[in-house]
Amino acid sequence: MEPVVDAPEQPIPDERPIALETFNLSKRYRTGFWLTKRVLSLQQINLKINEGETFGLLGQNGAGKTTFLKTVLGIVKPSKGKAVLLGKAIGNRKVKQRIGYLPENPYFYDYLTGYEILEFSAGLFGIPKRVYKNRINELIDLVGLSQGDARKKQLRQYSKGMLQRIGMAQALINDPDVVFLDEPMSGLDPLGRYQMREIILSLKAQGKTIFFNSHVLSDVEKICDRIAILDKGELICQGAIHDLLGEAQGYRVKIRGGNPEMLKQRVRNLKIQDGLWVGTLKGDAQDFIASLRLMRAQLESIELAKPNLEEFFVQQIRNRGVA
Ligand SMILES: Nc1ncnc2c1ncn2[C@@H]1O[C@H](COP(=O)(O)OP(=O)(O)OP(=O)(O)O)[C@@H](O)[C@H]1O
């Protein structure tokens, strides 16, 4: 009789259709007076985002986040590689009808009022008046500009936060399936950030695919299903936040006494807290415990700790010896 062997556990495939996929997407800018200098802003990026997913692209200043976004939207031409958005190559007109985009620093005709700029955008999409009248009112409400006379004010009288909100409304005028947001929280005060998060979460609840660039890692952690980190144009990791943080977990220790130089060799982010050394173990916990006597240290506590996204981000960048 054949021995019964348990089938190996297969990962459950994600059945959702792919909203965006890039294949070795690369961008090299030419700069300098004679355009002889080259900046490699994106290096062979392979990224996949499923429909209905909220995806955050993280990276330091100049990492290539905006370049990535502009490249997949067809605003910037890739030097190599390709991207497929909603099943079509970059620049497809029908696809453009189904996407919304909030640039990092949106430019508006600032003599138009909030209502007029939305009317103008609706016109660009060919949305009939009977449809856009209601939609504009709903959007003005959604982005929190329905109070007072904001809709009637010219945009030159808007604050940075108000401009960001009207930019968000503009990005949603065509009721897009995929929304691209470049630093949507930038320039917002804490209440504004909270409201922007709520708007993004409501779009997520409607099943829209949301892609956004951000520096504000606490927001990303609250909103995103998956993230990727770009560093100097290279993708250094991507995955579900839960999985990435889970893999990066380590032991957090509290230690009494001990030689700080020796402790630093074994404990990351070592600092003093309430008279104890505190940090995260670099290597094996058993080895560390065995070496405590040598370091003249006493272990007060040891616990499994998941880093938050900010710690994870810093760790990833440091591991590349960049930060
Ligand atoms: N039009 C351009 N011409 C030349 N170089 C450019 C151009 N746009 C961007 N770059 C360069 O490409 C690199 C990536 O820039 P990008 O704006 O994509 O980064 P980012 O991650 O969005 O930065 P930030 O967070 O500061 O907005 C930088 O070195 C930048 O100087």
Please characterize this protein's 3D structure.
The protein has a domain of 56 residues. The chain is 32% helix and 31% strand. The protein has a six-stranded mixed sheet, with helices on both faces. A four-stranded antiparallel sheet has the order 2-1-4-5, with helices on one face. Strands 12-13-11-14 form a four-stranded antiparallel sheet. Strand 4 and strand 5 form a beta hairpin. Helix 3 crosses helix 4. The protein is elongated. The mean pLDDT is 88.
Tell me roughly what share of residues is in helical segments. Answer: 25-40%
Distance between the termini: 60 Å
Major β-sheet profile: 6 strands, mixed
Bound molecules: adenosine-5'-triphosphate
The gross shape turns out to be elongated
Overall pLDDT confidence: 88
Helical element count?
11
Number of strands: 14
